[in-house]
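SAMPLE LOG
Freezer: B-3
Tube label: C17
Construct: single chain, 136 aa
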Amino acid sequence: MTSHFTPSLDRVRVTADTDWYEGAGISLGIRVGGLVFTSGQAPVDAGGATVGRGDFTVQARQALANVSTVLAQAGSGLDRAVKLTVFVTDIGHQDLFAAIRAEQYQEPFPAETFVQVSALADPDWMIEIEAVGVVA
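STRUCTURE (predicted):
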């Protein structure tokens, strides 16, 4: 007979002063124990408007800034991110993203998956980033 142990873990919704996903019924992030899981963070400003239409560098910096905001709201930060998943509409931007990522991270670098998708939720988005961070 197999016994299954299910620990009780509280899920805590992560929000920000301006929660650009609240109207969509999505949490910016969820904190569970010592980890925080972000939703995909898009290149949107605090009002939810897309920034940098057609400019991958601007969009990547904004999406990464949004990841930083969500992690910080949960007691984590980019320096404690252990996993990034980066969705792009053009895999040719991988080197550009690597340069932007290098501005933020030092060794040990977080694990990362970089994947091209045919589309994101908004046709003007060129990138979306989700992360897992450790809470201090």
